[in-house]
C-alpha cells in the first residue's frame, strides 16, 4: 500500500514500516531506542516487532499496565523517571507500540521529556490505526475526564502493520469500526454506505477501508491542524461519547466501555439531535441508528445515569465560555460544529436511543 503523506510525517504500511526503521534508526542519529508497550501488546505484538527492528542502537523496553485506567499523569511520571534512570537524552527516540492509550500517552511522554524527543507510533488496534494515527494529539486523562491534559505533537512517522489486527479480540475490532463509521458520516456518504452490509466485507476490503478512513481524517487535519475550526467535526459523537466513557470508567457499578463503544452511542445520540434540529431526515437518522446498534447493540441508561453523564459534559474540551458545543450532521456525509444543545434535547436523545 502506498504511503500516505501528512503535512508533518509519513504513514507507512506493512513491509515498508520495517524498511523505514532500518534506514532511520542508526547510531549516527540516535543514542538509544525506548520501546513502550502495555502488558497486552508486549506479549502479543512486541516479539514480532522487535524481530524486525534491525538496528545497532541500544534498545530498552518499557512496559506499562494495559487499560484506559492507566492513561494517567502518574504513569507518565513513572516513564519519565525510567527514561532518566536508563540514560535517555535529547538524541533518544521512543517507539510506541500499542493501541490509542499507548500512542496518546507515549506521544505525550516523548513530547515533554527533555522538552521533546523524537517518537514513532506503531498502532496495533483498529481504533488507533484509523484515529490516533493522524493529527498529532497526545495526552492523558485527569481522573475520569478524558484527554484533559496533553499537547499536539507529531511523530516522525506512523507505522501501520495490518497483521497486528490478528491479535485483537472481536470487541476491540468492533470498537475500531466506530471511528470509521464516523468518518463516513461527517465527510463521505459513499464511504458510509460501504458499511451498510458488513457481511460482504473481506480482509482485503478491510485493509482498503482502513486506508480510505485515514485519508479522510488526514484531509480534515491538513486543513485545520490545531482544531480552530473544521477539525472540530472529527469530534462527532465524542461530546456525549466521552462523557459516557468517563462515567462508565469511574462508576464502580458500571461495566467499562471501550472508547469506540462509547463513541458509537454518542453518534446515535448526536444523530438524533441533528434530526430534531431538522438537519437530518427521519430516514437518514433511522439508518444511522439501525446500522450502529446492529453492530454495537444497546447500553442501558436509567435517569440517574443520564443525569450523571450530563454533569460530565461541563468538562468537555469543546466547551467555550461555559457552553457545551456539539458537532451535528447536515445530512449523511456533511457536518457542522459549535452547535449549542439544551439539556431537554439531550435527555430526549437518550430516551429515543433506548426505545
Plain-language structure description:
Residues 63-174 form the 3-dehydroquinate synthase N-terminal domain. Catalyzes the conversion of 3-deoxy-D-arabino-heptulosonate 7-phosphate (DAHP) to dehydroquinate (DHQ). This protein is of the alpha/beta class. It contains 14 helices and eleven strands. Strands 1-2-9-6-5-3-4 form a seven-stranded mixed sheet, with helices on both faces. The protein has a two-stranded antiparallel ribbon with strand order 7-8. A two-stranded antiparallel sheet has the order 10-11.
Distance between the termini: 43 Å
Number of β-strand runs: 11
* Spatial order of strands in the largest sheet: 1-2-9-6-5-3-4
Largest sheet: 7 strands, mixed
Kindly report the name of the CATH homologous superfamily of the largest domain.
Answer: Dehydroquinate synthase-like - alpha domain
Helical content (DSSP H or I, runs of 4+): 40-55%
Tell me the series of helices and strands, N- to C-terminal: EEHEHHEHEHEHEEEHHHHHHHEEH
Assigned CATH architecture of the largest domain: Up-down Bundle
How much of the polypeptide forms β-strand, as a percent range?
A: 15-25%
Amino acid at each position: 500500500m502506498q504511503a500516505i503523506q501528512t503535512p508533518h510525517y509519513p504513514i507507512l504500511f506493512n513491509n515498508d514500516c520495517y524498511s523505514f526503521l532500518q534506514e532511520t534508526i542508526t547510531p549516527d542519529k540516535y543514542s538509544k531506542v525506548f520501546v513502550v508497550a502495555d502488558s497486552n501488546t508486549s506479549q502479543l505484538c512486541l516479539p514480532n516487532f522487535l524481530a524486525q527492528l534491525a538496528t545497532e542502537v541500544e534498545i530498552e523496553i518499557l512496559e506499562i499496565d494495559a487499560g484506559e485506567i492507566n492513561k494517567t499523569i502518574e504513569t507518565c511520571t513513572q516513564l519519565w523517571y525510567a527514561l532518566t534512570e536508563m540514560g535517555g537524552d535529547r538524541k533518544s527516540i521512543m517507539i510506541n507500540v500499542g493501541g490509542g492509550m499507548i500512542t496518546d500517552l507515549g506521544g505525550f511522554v516523548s513530547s515533554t521529556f527533555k522538552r521533546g524527543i523524537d517518537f514513532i507510533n506503531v498502532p496495533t488496534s483498529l481504533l488507533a490505526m484509523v484515529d490516533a494515527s493522524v493529527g498529532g494529539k497526545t495526552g492523558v486523562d485527569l481522573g475520569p475526564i478524558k484527554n484533559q491534559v496533553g499537547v499536539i505533537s507529531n511523530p516522525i512517522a506512523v507505522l501501520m502493520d495490518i497483521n497486528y489486527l490478528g491479535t485483537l479480540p472481536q470487541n476491540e475490532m468492533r470498537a475500531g469500526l466506530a471511528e470509521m463509521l464516523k468518518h463516513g458520516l461527517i465527510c463521505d456518504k459513499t464511504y458510509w454506505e460501504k458499511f451498510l452490509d458488513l457481511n460482504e466485507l473481506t480482509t482485503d476490503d478491510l485493509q482498503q477501508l482502513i486506508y480510505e478512513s485515514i485519508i479522510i481524517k488526514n484531509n480534515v487535519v491538513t486543513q485545520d491542524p490545531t482544531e480552530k475550526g473544521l477539525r472540530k467535526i472529527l469530534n462527532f459523537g465524542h461530546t456525549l461519547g466521552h462523557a459516557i466513557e468517563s462515567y462508565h470508567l469511574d462508576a464502580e457499578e458500571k461495566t467499562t466501555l471501550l472508547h469506540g463503544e462509547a463513541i458509537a452511542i454518542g453518534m446515535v445520540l448526536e444523530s438524533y439531535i441533528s434530526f430534531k434540529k431538522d438537519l437530518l431526515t427521519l430516514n437518514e437518522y433511522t439508518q444511522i441508528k439501525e446500522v450502529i446498534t446492529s453492530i454495537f447493540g444497546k447500553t442501558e441508561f436509567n435517569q440517574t445515569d443520564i443525569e450523571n453523564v450530563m454533569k460530565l459534559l461541563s468538562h468537555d474540551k469543546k466547551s467555550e465560555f461555559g457552553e457545551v458545543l456539539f458537532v451535528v450532521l447536515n445530512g449523511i456525509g456533511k457536518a457542522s460544529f459549535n452547535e449549542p444543545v439544551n439539556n431537554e434535547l439531550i435527555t430526549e436523545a437518550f430516551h429515543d436511543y433506548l426505545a
